[in-house]
Design goal:
Strand order of the largest sheet: 3-11-10-7-6-4-5
Radius of gyration: 22 Å
CATH class of the largest domain: Alpha Beta
Distance between the termini: 14 Å
Helix content: 25-40%
Order of helices and strands: EEHHEHEHEEHEEEEEHEEHHEEEHHHEH
Number of domains: 2
CATH superfamily of the largest domain: Type I PLP-dependent aspartate aminotransferase-like (Major domain)
Number of strands: 17
CATH topology of the largest domain: Aspartate Aminotransferase, domain 2
Largest sheet: 7 strands, mixed
Length: 407
């Protein structure tokens, strides 16, 4: 059995590649001590004195909803992304809903999307009375597979909603070509992809509308919130009215809208982070590179590490691996339980395809046979901590706990 030795800050670890349950399993020799418990959370929202001061300033001002701070946040994001319009809203879900409303999606329409995402990618379509049509994913990137999109287009198809999962952009050239050929809109779900790039184009500058989440675990957070980007003046105007109960001016409601406004407090939390987006991304990328380097010898043993497309700047909202239980001799859930016992929190993004959710029982049963890659991914993916607040000792502990879990 091949072995290798690495030294880091005086810590000597023998790494052996093997199968679960055997004497020399990857991790430590059988008589090596187990790592001590150390809590390493999946996410740690950014916090600073600047944020505290800004929040208190907002509270003292008495202007708490969609005022100057929201405008400043929108302007800062527009400058960073390089887009014409940013519209801040109350959540990533509300951003998606407004995008489909602004583009006129109605009952009977179909929007093609991925089943391997958070459920809002589909429910926002359903909010409009339309139908999500699920297309399987690429086994490397976990994003929608463009080669399968055209066969799902019908006379009722009005748009495509790619999801830039885990912080890696989908294949937008191929998706744009299909959309142009069939006269379809593109709404990008970039909830996990702020700062990501596709062929040197920032996500937020490609589709008709791009939707971001600023939920507390995201690469930039406002505790809760989201925003949309677009280059279209008319769409931007509709989005701004739709988020504010359809008002063109006070008490003059020209559209049937929603209360999807962002608070001033949320915006103040976000403003302090816009200038740090690229630094957060660099740290995530460095953390991901470290974990990949230390675990790379496992790829022949049934553990697939994240793939990075040469066309993409991957910002690693999640560091997600796949476990082939036939090769490893253990399951994703077994590994997760073991890592958790050492204090390393893990995540399963996502443990069930959207079309299998209980709220959709009987609605999308046919998609299971059409999405074998999604079915496999949902059973085998596991996310490890990669956030920018990880210390060197945290990273060492993640690797050591992983090694010990394979003993």
């Amino acid at each position: 059995m091949p072995l290798s030795l690495f030294k880091r800050q005086g810590i000597n670890c023998i790494l052996g590649i093997g199968r679960y349950g055997k004497e020399d399993i990857m991790g430590y020799a059988k008589n090596s001590p187990l790592p001590s418990f150390r809590r390493v959370p999946m996410a740690k929202p950014y916090h600073s004195p600047e944020i505290e001061d800004s929040v208190m300033s907002v509270i003292r001002s008495g202007r708490l909803i969609q005022g100057q701070k929201v405008m400043d946040f929108e302007n800062a994001l527009a400058e960073y992304i390089g887009c014409k319009h940013v519209i801040a809203v109350s959540s990533g879900t509300s951003a998606l809903h407004l995008a489909f409303l602004a583009l006129g999606v109605k009952p009977g329409d179909e929007v093609i999307t991925t089943p391997f995402s958070f459920v809002s990618s589909a429910t926002a379509i359903l909010y409009c009375g339309a139908k999500p049509v699920f297309v399987d994913i690429d086994p490397k990137t976990f994003n929608i597979d463009p080669a399968l999109i055209e066969q799902s287009i019908t006379p009722r198809t009005v748009g495509i909603e790619p999801v830039h999962l885990y912080g890696q952009p989908a294949d937008m050239d191929a998706i744009e070509a299909i959309a142009e050929k069939h006269n379809l809109f593109i709404v990008e779900d970039a909830a996990q992809a702020i700062g990501a790039e596709y062929k040197a184009r920032k996500i937020g500058t490609i589709g008709d509308i791009t939707c971001f989440s600023t939920y507390t675990t995201k690469n930039l957070h406002t505790m809760e919130g989201g925003f949309l980007t677009t280059s279209d003046d008319d769409i931007a105007m509709r989005l701004r009215r739709l988020r504010n109960i359809g008002q063109e001016s006070k008490y003059n409601h020209t559209l049937i809208g929603y209360n999807y406004r962002m608070t001033e407090v949320a915006a103040s939390v976000g403003i302090a982070q816009v200038q740090l987006i690229d630094e957060f991304s660099r740290r995530r990328q460095a953390n991901a590179a470290y974990i990949t380097r230390e675990l790379s010898m496992l790829e022949k043993e049934g553990i697939t590490l994240p793939y990075i497309s040469p066309d993409s700047k991957h910002v690693f909202h999640q560091y997600t691996i796949m476990i082939d239980s036939d090769m490893t001799g253990f399951t994703r859930d077994t590994l997760s339980d073991s890592l958790n016992s050492f204090g390393v929190e893990t995540g399963m993004h996502y443990p069930a395809p959207i079309y299998t959710q209980p709220c959709f029982e009987g609605c999308f049963d046919s998609f299971g046979s059409l999405c074998p890659v999604t079915e496999k991914a949902s059973r085998t993916v596991l996310s490890l901590p990669v956030h920018p607040c990880l210390t060197e000792k945290d990273l060492e502990h993640i690797v050591q706990a992983f090694q010990a879990s394979l003993r």
